[in-house]
Each structure stands twice: as structure tokens, then as C-alpha cells.
Amino acid sequence: MVVSDARAGSEFRVLRVTLGKEVGKRLADMGFTEGAEGQVVRSGFRLGGAFRGPFQVRIRGYDILLRRSEAAGIEIEVGS
Amino acid sequence: MSFDARGAVPVRPLRIALAGNPNAGKTSLFNALTGAHRKVGNYPGVTVEKREGSRFRNGREYVFIDLPGIYSLTAYSIDEVVARDFLLDERPDLIIDVLDSTNLERNLYLCLQFQELGIPVVGALNMSDEAEAKGITVDEKALSALLGLTMAKTVGTKGSGIEGLLDLVDRAVAGWVKASGPALPRSIRYGDEIEARIEPIEAAIAADPLFAARFPPRWMAVKLIEKDADARERLSGHRDAAGVEALAASAVAWIEKHYARDAEIVVSERRYGYIRGAAREAISRFGKPDFSLTEAIDAIIMNRFLALPIFAAILWGVFQLTFKLGAYPMGWLESAFAWLGGAATSALPAGILRSLVVEGIIGGVGSVFSFVPLIVILFFLLSVLEDVGYMSRAAFATDRLLHSFGLHGQSVFPLMLGFGCSVPAIMAARTLKSPRDRIATILAIPFMSCGAKLPVYVLLSAAFFPKNPGAVVMLVYAIGVSLSLASAWVLSKTALRGDPTPFVMELPPYRAPTLSGLLWHVGEKTQSYVKKAGTVILASAILVWAITSFPVYRPAPGLADSGTRAEAAMEQSFAGRIGKFIEPAFKPLGFDWKIGVATVTGFTAKEVIVSTLGVLYKVRGGEGAGSSGLRAALAADPVFSPLVAFVLMLFTLIIPPCFAALATIRAELGWKWLGFSVAFMLILGWGLGVAVYQVGSLLALAAPLAAGGAA
Fold this sequence. Notes:
The structure holds 2 protein chains of 2 kinds.
Chain A: E1 11-17, H1 21-29, E2 37-42, E3 46-47, E4 51-52, E5 55-59, E6 62-66, H2 68-71, E7 74-78
Antiparallel strand pairs in A: 1-2, 1-7, 2-5, 3-4, 5-6
Chain B: E1 2-3, E2 10-11, E3 14-20, H1 26-34, E4 38-42, E5 49-57, E6 60-66, H2 78-90, E7 94-100, H3 104-115, E8 121-126, H4 128-133, H5 140-147, E9 150-153, H6 162-179, H7 192-206, H8 209-214, H9 217-225, H10 229-235, H11 241-259, H12 263-282, H13 292-301, H14 307-347, H15 352-369, H16 372-388, H17 390-404, H18 412-417, H19 422-428, H20 435-444, H21 454-464, H22 469-493, E10 504-507, H23 515-549, H24 562-572, H25 574-586, H26 593-601, H27 607-616, H28 628-636, H29 642-654, H30 659-669, H31 671-698, H32 705-708
Parallel strand pairs in B: 3-6, 3-7, 7-8, 8-9
Antiparallel strand pairs in B: 1-2, 4-5, 5-6
Helix pairs in contact in B: 3-12, 5-12, 7-9, 7-11, 14-15, 14-16, 15-23, 15-27, 16-23, 19-30, 20-22, 21-22, 21-28, 21-29, 22-29, 23-27, 25-26, 26-27, 29-31, 30-31
């Protein structure tokens, strides 16, 4: 599963970031590394299929906004 | 330069870089450290503001340099490049790492990278009061011992903990001098296997002592493992760059094979792992801060249906408040300048000097300064939104919309500043990470109608649309916003094509703004506008006065009527001749030579259009937009019609805003983009103006006001 598929409110553990070079490194710098625990606070608002706003994700004690394209590059496992 | 107690040996001022994550309270700590002793400059080559301030203590001078807030020492954004170049190239004596005590986990990530730079680091555990209120206790002694750097608790907004922090600075510097040598700084270990690969690289780098003196080998080695492009570029100055690079490449290959993921990711993981270990021992309630208040507000502000309407409502409220509140001080300033003009008229003998002072300087600069209150209020309200933390919410609300026009959620703040003054707005675009987003945003900003264009709209709409002047002004603003989005869209489909850039942005918790912080922000942003009024506009006011006053007109005998004489004098002047010369270019817009001259002088700054028209129509006294004399004179001129007035507003909206804004675009993007932007604005302004005028004329809207009545 990836962050953009997760329901708002679900808690997760990061498996890996599949995004290339700069963005992948930036997400790792911001705390998305293997095993990091987080929560999808808010999933982007939707107007039709493609028109979807950013995600709000809580990781390492702070909140971060991600677009769907970045959120789709973070593999997670959702906790029970 | 200060002297020690014996007065003999001068003690060199200590140069201290203040660095840390955004939203860690760096600015308030800087203010608490430096008091009033500070100055604002720019980092070389970029217009990122460089704040410097100093403090004297026990006979020693401390010079603090406030670095931009960053998350990591990569070269991801301009802010990071600036911070990193400063640390590497200027090598300050010490780094104070300002850490947000409520969120040490991510803040320490940057701290670990500072420790690798071979510069002593002292940690300021800032916002410690907020952390305690949230029930987070930090054992700074234990944390210091674990991480190998000293730390003191501070509260920047209250100015507490400053002395303790400076004691640590003194000790760190003294200890550093005594122990000197590259072995001293304790920094993170990445684990035996990775260390075994880093060490040979370090040794190879250190083999060129000249290079190693400039770039710390440890830092360089780690950055090469992280595949940092900027570090690789700097490596080209090494005696054996190829050898070092080969070592680094094999280390990267080994790590990636062994850990089955990118080496730069492994490095990040190790850093976070190291922080976890240290934090578990020294911090209670680590990583589980309380979000309840922020969450309660965000449930409404960031609601998926309400976020965008709330943003629009806030923007509307900001404008209403700005214009309602600003009307009073604007009136006072206008009457003050009118009084000043009157006083100068009676104090000076009639002649060229009086004409220069009253009509040129006081009239020209006065009409601009009257708008300072509007700008101050607008910037104050926007700074409140910024300091409270609303701007990231605005980015959340607008990103999807702006993204479809090729912009970025973070473009929203620069674009909003653009309603005040393009200069700080263009500078604010530096927070955008990708050059493409930055260029698109900067090129879109001039279409956000700035405060200087407002007097032109107010004058013309009051004169030619007396029934509904407000609606016409709103229409012009709306056209500006549409053009701004449209031009960004066109650019993103043509000159700036490429993959969408990432949107990764921190969402800080809400914080109460401090008055000193707000005043600082407002002062900084207003400064550029006032500076413009004091320099560009003063010079252009004098120039406009000169070209309309010279050569001195000698009336031909027989021309008795003073109105005709003034008109003839104007046509005779340099301004008149320039106007006549360029008139053919303005004809298709319905402009005569007078409007032509006004728009040409308006190139320096848009407010100048109003004052030039005032001079051209020989309206004496306060030339502010409120003056009814100029309005009547314009309405009486058969050249003008509601259509021409509207075209002039449109033209004013679109053509390049002012010299100061152009200079800022050049500083941010270089000559090439400046040329592109100017050409784009001129062609669009002229083309659209001609289209509207010609179509309007066909529909017979060009009748002068007297005959056709107000539209």
C-alpha cells in the first residue's frame, strides 16, 4: 500500500520510498525512512477523479503536506 | 574591535552563524541575541536577505549571522544553497543550531550535519517553554553528552536563556582553540561497515591539505556517499579528484549492494536511527506531541470543502481591512503633502527652483508616499497570517488549483504579496524549491495589481465611471489575477515545460505571533517600497518635471488665453516632443501624445502616471488620486472616453510595473528572463489594449464622456 491509498486517520509504518533521486532523498531527509511510524491526518479533498488536493501526513512528530504524486511513492504498511 | 581586560591584546569579534529548521524560532532568538544592533543585506549573487547583528559581552563582540531556515544541508533549495555556501566558504567561528524543543527528532537531523562540518556547534534548545507546556522534558545534560555538543535551553520570544547560551559559546570556542585539530569534532558514526568505506575516502581527501583546509574531509566524504551534486562539483578542486571519486563510487556501489537501497537513503536512515537512540535516553514523550488545539482549528480551516472558500474569505477580509483602515492615514498624508507644497510655494520665490520643489519633488514623491499606509497595513495583515501559520494552510487549499495553472501551492504567498508591492513579492518567491516554479511565479507576480497601480485606477474610474468606480477597479484586479494564472499556464506549457515538481512542505502548528516579529517582517517588506519612493520615484519625478518644463516656452504674441498657452508650452517641451514622436505607436490604443508621455514616464513607476498627467494637465496642488481638479480636466478632454480610460487601466496593469521590480527580477533570474518578461508584458499589454480599443470602437463605445454619458 502507498500513502495516497491510505484512509484519513490510518496509522502506518514506512516500508520504503520508491521515488527517484532528489525527491526520494528529500523525503528521507524529512523523516520517511524505513520503520518510521506515521499517520495520514487528512487525505486531499477530491473534485472528481484527478482533481485531488495534497495529503497531510504526520511523521516524526510533525506534519507535512505532500502531493498525490509524492504520496504515491511512499510504500507503507497500515497498522492493525 | 574590542579589547580584553588588560587593554592590550585585541579580542577578535566572534562570527557566529545562527542556523536551524524553519519554524524553530530562529528569528526571535536572533532578535533576542542582538537587540537593536543589526543590519540587513543580501547574500552575494542572490537576494536572500542576510541579517547580521552584534552584541557586546564581557569585552567581547559577537557577530551573529542569521542563516535561512533549512531542513538539510543538501542543495535542494536556494535557501539551502545559501546556508551551505556560507558555512563552507566563510567558515564562521561557531554555529548556533536553533532547535525546536517540541520537535527535536527532525531538528536534530540537521544538527548532525552541522557537526560534520568541522566547525564547533552549540545547540539552542529553543521554545523550551512550549515543550514543557506540552509535557516534553528534555534532559539537556544527557543529550549533550550523547551527541557530543553542548546545549542550553532558550525561549527566543521571551529572551530567556541567552546568557547561558553565550557562556556555552565562550567555552566551546576556548575548548576548540585548545584542542585544535580535525579529530576533535565528535560526529555521528554510520556503523562499522559504512565507516570502513568512508574512512579511506576521508584519507584520500585529506591527502590534499590545501583542499582539506577548505572543505572538511569528513563532510565531503559523507556528501559523496550521498551523491551530492554540489559536493562533487567542489571536489573538482582536489588534486586527485578522479581518485577520490572512484573510491566514493565503489563505496556507494558496495553500500547499495549490501543494503539493497540507495546509499543516500541509507545515510538518512542511519542519522534518524542515531537520533532515536540518543533521544530515547534524554527526552520524555519523544515524538508524540499534542496536536489537539491545532487539530481542532484545522478540522475547519483545512476541511476539504471549506478550505478554499475560507481562503477566499480571508483574502477578501484582508483587502477590506486594508482599504478601510488605510483611508485615514492616506488622507492625512495627502493633506500633509498639500500643506508642504503650499508652504514651499510661499517660502520660495517664483521661478525654476520653486517649480522643481513644489511640482517636481513634493508633488511626485508625495503622491507615492500617500500609499505607504496601505502597503504597511497589507503587509502587516499578511505577516500575521504568515506568523500564525496560515500560509501553509493557504498552500494546502490552493495547491491543486494553482497546480493546474503550472504554479505551486507555495506560490500563493508571493502572489498575495504582489498586491502590495512586486519587489518583496518577487523576493518571497525564493521559498519555491524548483527553478521552474520560481520563474513561473516571479513572471506571474507583476500581473497581480500592486499598490502603485491603484492610484491610476482610482483616478480613471472616478473620472469616467462615476456611477460604479469600485466595480471597475475590482474588474481590473480580477483581470490581473486571470492574466497572472493564464501566463503561468502558458509558460508551463511552453518555455517551462517539464515534470511536475514535488510538493513537500511542513505544516507548522498554529502559533501566536509576537509583536516584535510582526513589526520586523513589516519593516523589512515596507523598506523596499519606501526605498523605491525615495530613489527611483524621486529621480523620475525630477526627470518628468524637467522634460515638461524645458525648453522654456516663449509664448508667441497673440496667444492670450492662458489655457491654450499652457497646452502650447507642453507641446513645445521635451515631453511633448517625445510624446509626438511615439504617438503613432499609441494611436491604435486610442491614446494621444499626453497619455503616451504618461505611460512612458510610468515605466519608472506606475504612480508616476498620475503625477505626470497632473503636470501635463497643469493641475496645481495635491496631485493625489483624490484630487477632483485632475479628474475634471481628464473628463473634459475629448481624447478620453470611458473606453480609452479602461484601455489605459488595462495597459497600466499589464506593462512592466517599475524599475525597482525589473531590477529585482534581474537580480533573481538574470538578464535573459528579465528581457523575456519585459517583452512578454509589453507585447501582451499593447496587443490586448489594441484589441479592446478596436473592438470597443467598432461597438461605438468610444464616444467622449460629455456626448455618450458614463458607461
